[in-house]
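Exercise 7.
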Amino acid sequence: MKRLDRKIILILLNFVLVSFSVSASVTHNEFKSLVESFHIEFDKEVSSQNETFLINQDFNSGNDLSFYWDMDIIRTSYSASIDTKSNKKTHIIYFFGGYGRLKYMTLDSVIMSLCHELGHGLSNGIQKDSSYGEPTASVEGEADYFAANKCFKRMIKYVPSQQKDRSDIFSKNYVKKCLNNNEENTKEFCVRSYNELLVEQQFFADSIVNPDNAKVVSFSSPDESEVLRTNTSPDYYPVPQCRFDTMINGYLNEDRPKCWYKK
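Solution. The predicted structure, written as tokens, is:
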């Protein structure tokens, strides 16, 4: 058996042994196992571009920096650094523990969040304007689309599924469309991506997390607005419904929505 396959099996066993629940918050050990999974999946690809990435890890040793997990801050962040001698680029992701401890948080949604941050560096989409001479990053909409369309599908194999089909009409229609839109999509991917979107709904509507911008987002009422150009301001985020539509379109292998994207 290949070394990579053994690593995947060990990580799967680790997730089973910690006995996570799909309806509960995420533990630090689960998070660290997930970080290891991201490195298994992406290290070779990123290294071939003379790049690397860190997720709550020390810049020099790569060791876990637990104090980020210990903080009750509810956010994630991305930045990048380029070594002036080697020209090597390091993508730096911070995931604060308050986010993982949200009562509705799941490992699949942590995957989605880390995929979003990684997408700022790896998606090669429309770039934000550079601020203070820092390396640029893909715009928020592009990071959302990369996470749903490319990254999530690659990462869920590292986390055992404990999710079942739902009987509501939105779920049935979504899963049917998901399977029809891309022959590579599996039933497991379609069900898990739908359930992940339900967590995104809770997050956007959470008035504690978003005291000034809590919004109810919907599967059935997409943002119909159309932009004249893609906003590349470093601080710009599409409105919640537009971001939710972007995730749906990414999972369903459909075009980026016009509420933020202009070719």
